[in-house]
Specification:
Blueprint: H1 25-51, H2 53-67, H3 73-91, H4 102-111, H5 125-130, H6 139-156, H7 160-168
Helix pairs in contact: 2-3, 2-6, 3-6
Length: 169
């Protein structure tokens, strides 16, 4: 009698399932890199948020000045320029741009931003700020331009390093 060779076969022995824990060293390296990147991004986001505090405060103050009906347009103009000078002092603490005369200060604001600013500002801005000027027909347009220009400057002005690089050119 012949032995059946198929009868001598055994069932296949399957290996144990692959466990997901403990992780291979490559996964540990990837987890540490991702965690480090996340922490670095979070720190940078907090620093950026803190660095832009003066922008948020200036925007809020400009909005309050614009919406306040108790002030005359001359008083609003003075308050807007005070707010801009405070924002300039916060944005560029090592320079003293806020101590410039008004026309030079407006020129600085125009040169430190990509947007077109203070286009409707009259030539006698000193008189409007420091004296009593005659009421003109376009004072509403001038005030709208001043508010929009000041808000644009606060929002879009150059950072300190970019301003320094421009002044060197």
């Amino acid at each position: 009698m012949e032995n059946d060779p198929l009868a001598q076969l055994r069932d296949i022995h399957l290996p144990d399932p692959i466990l997901w824990w403990p992780l291979a060293p490559g996964w540990w390296v990837l987890i540490i890199l991702c965690l480090g990147t996340f922490i670095w991004l979070a720190i940078k986001a907090v620093q950026r948020h803190q660095a832009n505090l003066y922008r948020r405060q200036a925007q809020q103050k400009l909005s309050l000045i614009k919406d306040d009906l108790d002030f005359t347009s001359e008083k609003k103009l003075v308050m807007v320029f005070e707010t801009l000078k405070q924002a300039v002092n916060s944005a560029y603490p090592r320079q003293h741009y806020s101590s410039l005369e008004v026309s030079a200060f407006v020129s600085f604001l125009q040169s430190s931003c990509d947007k077109a600013l203070f286009e409707l500002l009259p030539k006698d801005i000193d008189v409007l700020l420091y004296g009593k000027a005659a009421e003109t027909d376009n004072s509403v347009l001038v005030m709208d331009d001043v508010f929009s220009s000041s808000q644009n400057w606060v929002k879009y002005h150059y950072a300190q390093d970019k301003l320094e690089a421009q002044s060197q050119c």
